[in-house]
Design goal:
mainly alpha, elongated, two-stranded antiparallel sheet, two-stranded antiparallel ribbon
Length: 96
């Protein structure tokens, strides 16, 4: 029998959110857009991404230089902490 999330979608993986009687089981699709997961991941991405950008590209940016490769390096720098934070949140909430 296939498990279903709180929204009725079939789910191979389920993730638990909430506390006490308010626990909801969500499929991966709905776990990724869970407000708490999104808020935390975006905050971590903003803080850690900014620190890493300053460390890695600060000398170029402070000098007024913006080489073309920074157009992909900077977004990638922000996406890594976002993915790590999201993965961590889902890892600890996964139903086994």
């Amino acid at each position: 029998m296939q498990a279903h999330c709180v929204r009725g979608h079939p789910a191979g993986l389920l993730f638990r959110f909430g506390e006490g009687a308010a626990i909801e089981l969500r499929c991966l699709r709905h776990a990724l857009v869970q407000p708490q997961v999104l808020r935390t991941a975006l905050t971590m991405s903003a803080v850690v991404g900014t620190i890493l950008t300053i460390i890695n590209q600060g000398n170029l940016l402070a000098g007024g230089h913006f080489p073309a490769q920074l157009a992909w390096k900077i977004p990638l720098t922000y996406s890594v902490p976002y993915c790590v934070s999201t993965f961590s949140a889902l890892r600890i909430s996964r139903v086994r």
